[in-house]
Amino acid sequence: MKPIKLQLNNFGPFLNETIDFSQIENNQLFLISGKTGSGKTMIFDAIVYALFGKASTENRKEDDLRSHFADGKSPMSVTYEFKLHNQIFKVHREAPFIKEGNTTKTHAKLDIYEQIDHQYELKESRVNAGNQFIVQLMGVNAEQFRQLFILPQGEFKKFLQSNSKDKQSILRTLFNSERFEEIRSYLMDSVKNEKLQIENRYNQINHLWNSLATYENDNLSKLKEIDSSQTDKIIQKTSDFIEYGKQLLSDYKDKKTSVNKEVEEISNKYNLNKELK
């Protein structure tokens, strides 16, 4: 994000002030200096307030930002123009306040514009929707923006001392690593599904292996002692079951033929004896 212009009305010590950051041109670094209480932090407060409706630190609330010099009829407002992803946006935010002579607060206002063909077009004018629009546009919320981009008066130390979970969340947002999290999640699900399929296949192999008939053959019974997870050995030894089964089937077919012949001969003799009787 590159600031372009900041307009402050009744904000902190500023009644009507405009800061033109475009005068910095292409300088990489610039310094904001001034005496204590001169309003240096208020410039950052104004940027954070325009974007998120909050101050640059947690200990200051929205009501603390209104200028003590403001009259009773003028609202506190900030207009912030900035460049982001080669697009230029303008945010105008007005704080609610109790007008002189009234008992209830005015409504907060938020207008967000995008520059298209050198003209600003209104993108959002509802406060809640506008706040969500800014978060999606920036990719961070107010707290993360404070810790990543502002870090005033000891906030950097707070970021360094924050726990790993908070750092991880902030850095994940900063470097847009959500896509890697999605890939990681996808790969983990794929691995999980593949493991489940492999486990099902092993269970099936185990069931089929245990179901193989040994034909009461000692050699085949000994082969059945191989663990079903040793698929390479199973593949080698299944041919033994097949060959033995074929041989056994052939022997029984021969025996069946012989037995059928004997049955036929006995049947003929029986019929002959029956006729003789």
Q: Describe it for me?
A:
This protein has helices spanning 40-52, 62-65, 127-138, 142-150, 155-161, 164-174, 178-211, 218-223, 231-276, and strands at 2-11, 14-20, 77-84, 87-94, 109-116, 119-124. A hairpin with a 2-residue loop joins strand 5 and strand 6 (119-124). The protein has a 6-stranded antiparallel sheet. It has 2 domains: 2-153, Rossmann fold, CATH 3.40.50; 212-276. It has 277 residues and is α+β, with helices and mostly antiparallel strands. Helix 1 (40-52) packs antiparallel against helix 4 and helix 4 (142-150) packs across helix 5. It contains 9 helices and 6 strands; from the N terminus they run E-E-H-H-E-E-E-E-H-H-H-H-H-H-H.
Question: What is the number of independent domains?
Answer: 2
Give the termini distance in whole angstroms: 120 Å
Q: Can you identify the CATH class of the largest domain?
A: Alpha Beta
Q: Strand portion, in percent?
A: 15-25%
Task: Please name the fourth-level CATH homologous superfamily of the largest domain.
Answer: P-loop containing nucleotide triphosphate hydrolases
Subunit organisation of the chains? single chain
CA-atom Rg in angstroms: 42 Å
Number of strands: 6
The fold-level CATH name of the largest domain is: Rossmann fold
* Average of the residue pLDDT scores: 86
> What is the CATH-assigned architecture of the largest domain?
3-Layer(aba) Sandwich
Any idea what the shape is? rod-shaped
Largest sheet: 6 strands, antiparallel
> Which strand order does the major sheet show?
2-1-3-4-5-6
Q: Helix count?
A: 9
How do the SSEs run, as a string of H and E? EEHHEEEEHHHHHHH
Low-confidence stretches: none
The helix content is 40-55%
